[in-house]
Amino acid sequence: MHNVDASGGQGVSCMLKVYEAALVADAEQVRDLLERRGIDAYVFGEHTYSVLGVNPLAWPQVWVAEDRDFEPAKALVNDYEQARRDLAASAAAGEQWRCAACGETNEATFDVCWSCGEPRDV
Ligand SMILES: [Zn+2]
After folding, report:
1. Which of 102, 107, 93 is nearest to 122 (CA)?
2. What b-and-e string marks burial along 13-27, b requiring 16 or more CB atoms within 10 Å of the CB?
3. Which of 30, 36, 65, 85 is in the most buried spot, having the most CB atoms within 10 Å?
4. Whole-structure pTM over 0.90, yes or no?
5. How far apart are the CA of 115 and the centre of ligand 1, in A?
6. Going from the N-terminus, what domains does the chain have, and what CATH number goes with each?
7. What is the whole-number distance in angstroms between the Cα of residue 88 and the centre of ligand 1?
8. CB 13 within 8 Å of CB 64
């Protein structure tokens, strides 16, 4: 790889953290995302996580090896997080609703009660 900093000398590693996930699966997903764009990325913390359970000091983390990959990786992570927020928002919007008139449960895609025809949100 690279990363002997000729001027500094403190550079054991120049790896940079770009993402911290609550779940290993999230971290792995981000790493896949980055690697598909040609960015070398690594997941750390997953072992500790799986052995000890939820440990706030050891969330799965995604790191990149190259300084020059940091900004593009961050941008990809932001896109990923935005997509997740959109997904969560649409999932929340996709909740079932209960008809005020007859009490029947309706799918989110229904604008009127399938049972009695009462409009939603009356
Ligand atoms: Zn109804």
Report:
1. 102
2. ebbbebbebeebebb
3. 30
4. no
5. 5
6. 16-95 (3.30.70)
7. 27
8. no
